[in-house]
């Protein structure tokens, strides 16, 4: 269909291919779907057989629940049970941020499949801000389950080719939506419990300050407020973010090092790559190459380039990767503490050191 595409399953996002993808989804097949956060592995979320294909293709533990994507906030009502005024008010407030990189966790309705919620009594929902995703979701008018389109524990995809790299045999098509604008998974916010403040379960680009201005009330962050996430919240199934320790790892050994470390302590026989978070990509002793995620130290740019850079670093030319840690204290001037926490969390998950601390 697209003679210039790098793979025959990657379709340019024309109305015709969106219809083709939509029909494939209706038929129970899997599609690579661009969103502004990362590419999703999409299946209709109202059919257990289709949802099962996601878990099989990703080799995802069945305890890890899926996010349902819809094209419009109104489409959420049939998926959730909002029997509290507080929850209804919070939902109205939060949905003003849709379409956007925000996933809401709400009490589920009985119509939602157990395999989507991992058996829990809440469901995660989102309206993504990508024109292609929105067109497809509005055309199909079904809830679409779409976790990141990578094999479990590998790096999330931010380009159509990344979906093909891991899941070529599983997807019918990948819609080409270009490079993801955000490049980091959505902020997951629970408003399931009216007796507790809205709580961020997984950090993303959204700041608590922004969320607080929308809600007109305090918003907690499991990571920043040091809330216990190793035990699931009572309203969530067993696998909230934070449970899967090595989550976004490249295959090449990856170590976190201090930003101020300017020489590698690795064995000199090894081909070691250094990835700096900020500043120039000038050469450093002990490294065969030095890359920088953002010359200006812009956290949005760092987030945007992180996964693509990790995938490139993992393409086989290096024996080891060393990447700067993001110490929250060293980045306090950079504005959005939640985004800093999100990047720091993903870096810890990407590291496959045995002694790596769990990402906060
Ligand atoms: P992914 O789409 O691969 O980024 O993964 C979706 C993530 O959303 C899961 O790993 C969970 O951490 C989170 N999630 C989905 N549903 C729920 C839920 N009902 N309660 C809490 N977290 C959820
Ligand atoms: Mg994922």
Automatic annotation (TrEMBL):
<feature type="domain" description="YrdC-like">
    <location>
        <begin position="15"/>
        <end position="206"/>
    </location>
</feature>
<dbReference type="InterPro" id="IPR005145">
    <property type="entry name" value="Sua5_C"/>
</dbReference>
<dbReference type="Pfam" id="PF01300">
    <property type="entry name" value="Sua5_yciO_yrdC"/>
</dbReference>
<feature type="binding site">
    <location>
        <position position="146"/>
    </location>
    <ligand>
        <name>L-threonine</name>
    </ligand>
</feature>
<dbReference type="GO" id="GO:0061710">
    <property type="term" value="F:L-threonylcarbamoyladenylate synthase"/>
</dbReference>
<dbReference type="InterPro" id="IPR017945">
    <property type="entry name" value="DHBP_synth_RibB-like_a/b_dom"/>
</dbReference>
<keyword id="KW-0819">tRNA processing</keyword>
<dbReference type="GO" id="GO:0000049">
    <property type="term" value="F:tRNA binding"/>
</dbReference>
<keyword id="KW-0547">Nucleotide-binding</keyword>
<feature type="binding site">
    <location>
        <position position="122"/>
    </location>
    <ligand>
        <name>L-threonine</name>
    </ligand>
</feature>
<dbReference type="GO" id="GO:0005524">
    <property type="term" value="F:ATP binding"/>
</dbReference>
<comment type="function">
    <text>Required for the formation of a threonylcarbamoyl group on adenosine at position 37 (t(6)A37) in tRNAs that read codons beginning with adenine.</text>
</comment>
<dbReference type="GO" id="GO:0003725">
    <property type="term" value="F:double-stranded RNA binding"/>
</dbReference>
<protein>
    <recommendedName>
        <fullName>Threonylcarbamoyl-AMP synthase</fullName>
        <ecNumber>2.7.7.87</ecNumber>
    </recommendedName>
</protein>
<keyword id="KW-0067">ATP-binding</keyword>
<dbReference type="GO" id="GO:0008033">
    <property type="term" value="P:tRNA processing"/>
</dbReference>
<feature type="binding site">
    <location>
        <position position="202"/>
    </location>
    <ligand>
        <name>ATP</name>
    </ligand>
</feature>
<dbReference type="GO" id="GO:0005737">
    <property type="term" value="C:cytoplasm"/>
</dbReference>
<feature type="binding site">
    <location>
        <position position="69"/>
    </location>
    <ligand>
        <name>L-threonine</name>
    </ligand>
</feature>
<feature type="binding site">
    <location>
        <position position="248"/>
    </location>
    <ligand>
        <name>ATP</name>
    </ligand>
</feature>
<keyword id="KW-0548">Nucleotidyltransferase</keyword>
<dbReference type="Pfam" id="PF03481">
    <property type="entry name" value="Sua5_C"/>
</dbReference>
<dbReference type="InterPro" id="IPR006070">
    <property type="entry name" value="Sua5-like_dom"/>
</dbReference>
<comment type="similarity">
    <text>Belongs to the SUA5 family.</text>
</comment>
<keyword id="KW-0808">Transferase</keyword>
<keyword id="KW-0963">Cytoplasm</keyword>
<dbReference type="GO" id="GO:0006450">
    <property type="term" value="P:regulation of translational fidelity"/>
</dbReference>
<feature type="binding site">
    <location>
        <position position="186"/>
    </location>
    <ligand>
        <name>L-threonine</name>
    </ligand>
</feature>
<dbReference type="InterPro" id="IPR038385">
    <property type="entry name" value="Sua5/YwlC_C"/>
</dbReference>
<feature type="binding site">
    <location>
        <position position="60"/>
    </location>
    <ligand>
        <name>ATP</name>
    </ligand>
</feature>
<feature type="binding site">
    <location>
        <position position="37"/>
    </location>
    <ligand>
        <name>L-threonine</name>
    </ligand>
</feature>
<feature type="binding site">
    <location>
        <position position="126"/>
    </location>
    <ligand>
        <name>L-threonine</name>
    </ligand>
</feature>
<feature type="binding site">
    <location>
        <position position="156"/>
    </location>
    <ligand>
        <name>ATP</name>
    </ligand>
</feature>
<dbReference type="InterPro" id="IPR050156">
    <property type="entry name" value="TC-AMP_synthase_SUA5"/>
</dbReference>
<feature type="binding site">
    <location>
        <position position="148"/>
    </location>
    <ligand>
        <name>ATP</name>
    </ligand>
</feature>
<dbReference type="InterPro" id="IPR010923">
    <property type="entry name" value="T(6)A37_SUA5"/>
</dbReference>
<feature type="binding site">
    <location>
        <position position="64"/>
    </location>
    <ligand>
        <name>ATP</name>
    </ligand>
</feature>
């Amino acid at each position: 269909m697209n003679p210039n595409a790098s793979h025959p399953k990657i379709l340019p996002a024309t109305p015709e291919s969106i219809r083709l993808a939509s029909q494939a989804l209706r038929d129970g097949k899997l599609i690579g779907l661009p969103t502004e956060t990362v590419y999703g592995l999409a299946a209709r979320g109202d059919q257990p057989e289709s949802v099962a294909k996601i878990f099989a293709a990703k080799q995802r533990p069945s305890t890890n629940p899926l996010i349902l994507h819809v094209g419009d906030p109104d489409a959420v009502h049939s998926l959730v049970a909002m029997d509290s005024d507080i929850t209804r008010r919070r939902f109205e407030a939060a949905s003003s941020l849709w379409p956007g990189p925000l996933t809401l966790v709400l009490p589920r309705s009985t119509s939602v499949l157990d395999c989507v919620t991992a058996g829990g009594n809440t469901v995660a929902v989102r309206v993504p801000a990508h024109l292609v995703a929105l067109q497809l979701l509005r055309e199909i008018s079904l809830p679409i389950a779409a976790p990141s389109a990578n094999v479990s524990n590998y790096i999330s995809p931010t380009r159509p080719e990344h979906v093909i790299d891991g899941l070529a045999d599983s997807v019918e098509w990948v819609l080409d939506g270009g490079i993801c604008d955000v490049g980091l998974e959505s902020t997951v916010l629970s408003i399931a419990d009216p007796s507790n403040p809205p709580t961020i379960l997984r950090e993303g680009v959204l700041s608590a300050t922004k969320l607080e201005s929308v809600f007109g009330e305090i918003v907690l962050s499991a990571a920043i407020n040091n809330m216990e996430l190793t035990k699931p919240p009572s309203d969530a199934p067993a696998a909230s973010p934070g449970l899967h320790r090595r989550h976004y790892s490249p295959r090449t050994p990856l170590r976190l090092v201090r930003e101020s470390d300017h020489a590698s302590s690795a064995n000199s026989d090894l081909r070691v790559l250094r990835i700096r978070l900020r500043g120039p990509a000038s050469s450093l002793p002990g490294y065969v190459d030095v890359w920088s995620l953002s010359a200006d130290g812009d956290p949005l740019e760092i987030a945007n380039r992180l996964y693509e850079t990790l995938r490139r670093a993992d393409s086989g030319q290096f024996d080891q990767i060393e990447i700067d840690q993001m110490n929250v204290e060293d980045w306090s001037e950079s504005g959005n503490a939640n985004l800093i926490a999100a990047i720091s969390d993903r870096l810890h998950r990407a590291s496959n050191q045995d002694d790596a601390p769990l990402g906060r």
